[in-house]
Design goal:
By secondary structure, the protein is of the alpha+beta class. 61% of the residues lie in helices and 18% in strands.
Length: 356
């Protein structure tokens, strides 16, 4: 008895395994697997079972046992991610440009019960919903925004599909636009627009470069003028300092010469040396008369070098000698007489020169 039950159970298990191995072939031929009492459901699949025409339960992956005749597998739903190609269709943008656009839809069945009883053909329903949603979303955008906001367009289509497909037990994971075809004339105008934009940017960059160049040149000239003025200022300061140093050096040299001359005059025969020097200077000055002007003043006896030297030495002696007390009045009176006499002689000489 037990052996017979074991043989019958093994036969049923063997038959169920054979039925499970040929599951794909049977679904391809008949569309749905048949009730063989013992069934093995593959992973990531959900088999919807009806009992006497009414929903009974959903078979989980693994071993499942059904009642013959009463139970029937009504739907088989795949829980894997499904890829659906959305056919190419025409859509009109906000600026009245007709586009040919297609896409790819990625979805997954989240609730096998709703996917089985909520809609007749879930994939077809989602495909049609994706096409209509894409047309409505493209109608809200201009042609330029269609290319710039491609990601936001895909996200908007996914949100719209998920709102409607929630009652079908389907969730749209993502939607991708594959190709966007524009009319040839529109394509040519877009190409011209791109070329114009590039020329505009090139012109702007060139003008900015010219402006920067002019600014740099002006800044260079400004710096050059500033440096030139500073150099001229430094040159003038150095020149003034050099002239001041030269004047100071000349003054020191002259003071040293006077000191040496004074020291020499105090030595032996200093008066004779001074007389010789005065005579030489007189002769040199007399040789230069009447070279710069025709009008000159001469003493009464210009050829008498001895008297001129004696007069110069007398003046030097009077300056070097200390004044004697009591004799100042006589000296001053004599000096005044000498001065008057010299003035009279100079007047006579001047009149003579004018007459001549």
């Amino acid at each position: 008895m037990l052996a017979r039950a074991a043989r019958s159970t093994g036969a049923l298990l063997l038959r169920g395994s054979v039925q499970a191995s040929g599951h794909a072939t049977r679904r391809a031929s008949s569309g749905l697997p048949r009730n063989t009492v013992v069934l093995f459901v593959p992973q990531q699949e959900a088999w919807v079972v009806e009992r006497m025409g009414r929903f009974h339960r959903i078979l989980e992956p693994g071993l499942n046992i059904l009642i013959p005749v009463l139970d029937r597998i009504r739907y088989v739903q795949s829980l894997k991610e499904i890829v659906i190609n959305v056919p190419e269709q025409s859509a009109v943008t906000l600026d009245n440009v007709t586009l040919q656009i297609d896409g790819v839809l990625y979805l997954r069945i989240m609730d096998p019960y709703k996917a089985s009883y909520g809609v007749e053909d879930p994939e077809y329903a989602v495909t049609q919903l994706a096409q209509t949603t894409m047309r409505s979303e493209l109608g809200k955008l201009s042609l330029d925004k269609v290319f710039r906001e491609r990601e936001s367009l895909n996200a908007s289509i996914v949100d719209a599909i998920n709102q409607a497909a929630d009652y079908w037990g389907i969730r749209c994971l993502r939607y991708e636009i594959k190709d966007i075809h524009v009319p040839p004339r529109v394509k040519e105008s877009m190409q011209m627009q791109v070329e114009a934009e590039r020329r505009k940017r090139a012109t702007v960059l060139e003008s900015e470069g010219t402006r920067e160049s002019a600014i740099n040149v002006a800044e260079g000239k400004k710096q050059a003028q500033i440096l030139a003025s500073e150099a001229e200022k430094a040159e003038q300061i150095n020149q003034a300092a050099g002239e001041a140093s030269a004047v100071l050096a000349k003054a020191k040299a002259k003071a040293e010469a006077i000191r040496i001359l004074a020291a020499a005059l105090t030595q032996h025969n200093g008066d004779a040396a001074a007389s010789l020097t005065v005579a030489e200077q007189y002769v040199s000055a007399f040789s230069k008369l009447a070279k710069d002007s025709n009008t000159i003043l001469l003493p009464s006896n210009p050829g008498d070098v001895t008297s001129m030297v004696a007069q110069a030495m007398g003046v030097y002696g009077a300056l070097t000698k200390a004044p004697v007390p009591g004799a100042q009045d006589s000296v001053s009176s004599g000096s005044s007489r000498d001065v008057q006499g010299r003035d009279a002689s100079l007047d006579e000489e001047f009149d003579r020169v004018k007459l001549s």
